[in-house]
Amino acid sequence: MKGFDKRVESYADALAGLSDGMTVLAGGFGLCGIPENLIEQIRVMGVKGLTVVSNNCGVDDFGLGVLLKDRQIRKMVASYVGENAEFERQLMSGELEVELTPQGTLAEKMRAGGAGIPAFFTATGYGTPVGEGKEVREFNGRPHILEHAITGDFAIVKGWKADRYGNVIYRHTAQNFNPCVAAAGRITVVEVEKIVEPGELEPSQIHTPGIYVDRLIVGSFEKRIEKRTVRTAA
Amino acid sequence: MKGFDKRVESYADALAGLSDGMTVLAGGFGLCGIPENLIEQIRVMGVKGLTVVSNNCGVDDFGLGVLLKDRQIRKMVASYVGENAEFERQLMSGELEVELTPQGTLAEKMRAGGAGIPAFFTATGYGTPVGEGKEVREFNGRPHILEHAITGDFAIVKGWKADRYGNVIYRHTAQNFNPCVAAAGRITVVEVEKIVEPGELEPSQIHTPGIYVDRLIVGSFEKRIEKRTVRTAA
Amino acid sequence: MALSREQMAQWVANELKDGDYVNLGIGIPTLVANYVPPGIDVMLQSENGLLGMGAFPLEQDIDADMINAGKQTVTARAGASIFSSAESFAMIRGGHVDLTVLGAFEVDVEGNIASWMIPGKLVKGMGGAMDLVAGADNIIAVMTHASKGGESKLLSRCSLPLTGAGCIRRVLTDLAYLEIEDGAFVLKARAPGVSVEEIVAKTAGALRVPDEVPEMRF
Amino acid sequence: MALSREQMAQWVANELKDGDYVNLGIGIPTLVANYVPPGIDVMLQSENGLLGMGAFPLEQDIDADMINAGKQTVTARAGASIFSSAESFAMIRGGHVDLTVLGAFEVDVEGNIASWMIPGKLVKGMGGAMDLVAGADNIIAVMTHASKGGESKLLSRCSLPLTGAGCIRRVLTDLAYLEIEDGAFVLKARAPGVSVEEIVAKTAGALRVPDEVPEMRF
Questions:
Q1: Is the pLDDT assigned to residue B100 strictly greater than 90?
Q2: C170 near C42, Cβ under 8 Å?
Q3: Is D75 exposed, middle or buried (CB count within 10 Å of its CB: 0-12, 13-18, 19+)?
Q4: Source organism's superkingdom (chains A, B) (predicted)?
């Protein structure tokens, strides 16, 4: 009886079934809280033609940027894609399709995908290029646009601690998009820094309940810092 | 400088400004996690003609039931209103207007109200009395109905611990509707069992961030149990 | 002979798969938890915000802040998580719950279900039932096949206000297990000692009877 | 003389009220945090999921898991909370943030703002700007009044793709503070030593000039 033990043996097992043309949702904000090793595994697998939904697209040599370099991504859905020269090149050359989505709308689209809400109205993006071609309706005297949910074939998530049941907590601002992504994957794969014993996580303090998690693995993380800003002791 | 100190001195202060005809959102599920003392304060104030949005309506002599008895409630929006004889009487006699709303739709309507989503589509209630008169649209081959957000003039919430900044955590299943309600009030009032020192609550473990909370007070709670079920030691 | 409440629960329990997340409604569905087969672990979802409902507490462990959707005092099992009502129904509405078992007054050949309201009688509300039937992919409606007066509850069209439209594909009654396909009930199994003729007589909606209708075993 | 970046930040800081939750965009808005007046406490919201952004960390306290929306390493102050992106934008979209300060390329008399895209130049994305302008009740757009070539950025109609429509009512430039009312900019204050004539000359959109236009003080 495996029951609710979500642990898998290897990164190959973690992403078994991922194939060309699939949609992958990825957690993280900039390089913070990104599923580093799952991204690397996608690189190793060499799957192509992916649609990737993630707030950002990494940097040239780290995070999702490595999948761009290997031309594994056909389409990117993101709110901000700076800090990436290869990205620029592929976008300008038309090799890469990009759907820019406001950050909050992106988070809400995935939250809706996980929550079985197929579409919702938001004021965000009305009157802008984002609103073009979308249904407009007035609520409380203000125009809103209709936005649709996003779900993915795979969701790749970076957690801090988890138990074998797949209950996950995130550390500090490495939480960001991860819980939204976790809920919206058909197959949700979480990599964490540490797997703790059942009972160690207080039930009411779990960020992502195990029901959303299909596979769980422990990794080690570089956690690259994009902008190192410090103060000096006063 | 009061800054972010949300504490008020008395229950009178906590509900100052609540007046006849207002909409009040109340947390709790059955009698679990209900804002007992804030409800009692509404009774004491004697405001009338309230619209109350709450999953349940208490029992005859406890919780929101006491406001029914005093005929302070004009309209009730809830998913389940059993266990209450006075409720039955007023409903049958037409004294009380009731808008029955599916439990998940009720939670989502308040979540939407707090999140600035004016309306969303859901499959829940399609083809039932709940769906009557509502816009129907098909998504993924399945009919959905359009549901609108709920917000309130006041939200009354029961938390466990809070800090003076209004950051709140809930205990066990006394969480239930409380975070949804807290986010959807124009004025959100939280009563808790304990106010802890700043820094005692881990930032990433806070259920309701202080930005949603306007007033905070410590109360003592009866915590009546509706259905006492036990097992005997094996 | 018609199935007892316990046998109905036992039959449903045999449908459970290891690792299933399950929501059990009030009544017979609740009893299912008592018959989970050995070697199978399931996690019970309680829509007030508890995934991993455990046993009732010992007297000394009763906690007013730990209840289930039936408002009974309960405990949380290993691996449990607790969350808001919005999150709980995100889980349900989003189709993450593998199996929902709930009672019904009527079901019909279109997969409609009526389970919450009898006009003229007092209406207490639908609670989470409408969300559950709209959200779970896999629902088993558990009910008596006919009223005490012998009137069928398996209809060509529900007469009571619906809980959900077109969402039921599996029905367990005290007489039979049926699936709904292409506008008809399909008789898949019968209760021990119950004849196909009795089931046919007590099924008002279109019914397809295969050549072989196995008898349930307990 | 035109305001310096620091003076612009300082002016905005004086608009802060004790207990405000504030979102500061990249650039000059970020500097506002340095000029919060004494006796005033504000809580900074960073849209990646941090309410209560503190100072930059000491070298030895740098933590890759603690960043702000500009991807800078930061700390959390007393009273901070940390949450998901969905929750963060629920807060923003739901109008719970009291004040949003952000840069702009152009604003116009209808309250439209363009701040994220210059066609022909590489588009890096709108990030959270569209959500912020649509969500906050109170927004201050901070910008230079005219381009280096002298072309006004306060227009009758934005020429660049919009970030938000009809959402800006307050604009601080290096020359003036203006409010947008009934399809016109209203000149509320001018930078020290800047003449009304210069502001008129550099404002392309309809401009109403009251009899008295106070000079800002620093």
A1: yes
A2: no
A3: buried
A4: Bacteria
CB nearest A118 (choices: B116, B121, B169): B121
Per-residue pLDDT of chain C (218 residues; tens, 9 = 90+): 899 999 999 999 999 999 999 999 988 999 999 999 999 999 999 999 999 999 999 999 999 999 999 999 999 999 999 999 999 999 999 999 999 999 999 999 999 999 999 998 878 899 999 999 999 889 999 999 999 999 999 999 999 999 999 999 999 999 999 999 999 999 999 999 999 999 999 999 999 999 999 999 98
B165 contacts D18? CB cut-off 8 A: no
CA atoms within 13 A on the CB side of D91: 31
The rounded distance, in Å, linking the Cα atoms of D165 and D174 is: 23
CB contact under 8 A, B114 and D82: no
pLDDT at residue A27 in the model: 98
Among residues C24, C69, C74, C37, which one has the least CA distance to residue C54?
C74
> How far apart are alpha carbons B94 and B88 in whole angstroms?
10
Sort out which chain C residues have CB atoms less than 8 A from B127's CB and list them. 112, 162, 164-166
Least CB-CB distance to B80: which of C62, C124, C135? Answer: C124
Let me know: does B154 contact B14? Beta carbons within 8 Å: no
Q: How many residues does chain C have?
A: 218
Nearest to A159 by CA among A188, A186, A193, A185: A193
Distance from CA of B206 to the nearest CA of D (A): 6
Contacts of B167 in chain A (CB under 8 A): none
Confidence of residue D1 (pLDDT cuts 50, 70, 90): confident
Q: Which residues contact B206 (CB under 8 A, 6 or more apart)?
A: B167, B168, B169, D81, D82, D83
DSSP 8-state assignment for residue A183: H
Q: Write out the DSSP string of chain D.
A: -PPPHHHHHHHHHTT--TT-EEEE-SSHHHHGGGGPPTT---EEEETTTEEEE-PPPBGGG--TT-B-TTSBB--EEEEEEE--HHHHHHHHHTT--SEEEEE-SEEETTS-EE-S--TTSPP---TTHHHHHHH-SSEEEEE-SB-TT--BSEESS--SPPSBSS---EEEESSEEEEEETTEEEEEEE-TT--HHHHHHT--S-EE--S--PBP--
Cβ(A143)–Cβ(C121) below 8 Å: no
Helix runs in chain C, H state only: 5-13, 28-31, 85-93, 129-135, 196-201
b/e per residue, D33-52, with b = 16+ CB within 10 A? bebbeeeebbbbbbbbbbbb
Q: B107: left (phi > 0), else alpha (psi -120 to 50), else beta? A: alpha
Q: Which two tokens stand for residue D120?
A: 């022909």
Superfamily of domain A2-102+150-175+184-218: Glutaconate Coenzyme A-transferase (3.40.1080.10)
Domain ranges of chain B: 2-102+150-175+184-218
Nearest chain A residue to B142 by CA distance is: A118
Token pair recorded at residue C182: 């292409």
Residue to substitute from B86, B99, B110, B128, interface C, most C β-carbons within 10 A: B128
Task: Find chain D residues with C-beta within 8 A of A129's C-beta.
Answer: 117, 161-162
- Domain locations in chain C as residue ranges: 5-208
D-proximal residues of A, 17-76, CB under 8 Å: 29-33, 55
User: In this structure, are strands B97-100 and B185-192 parallel, antiparallel, or unpaired?
Assistant: unpaired
Q: Is A223 left (phi over 0), alpha (psi -120 to 50) or beta?
A: left
What residues in C contact B232, CB-CB < 8 Å? 58-59
Interface of C with B in 90-129 (CB under 8 A): 90, 92-93, 112, 117, 122-129
Give this complex's ipTM.
0.97
Tokens of A168: 């996950």
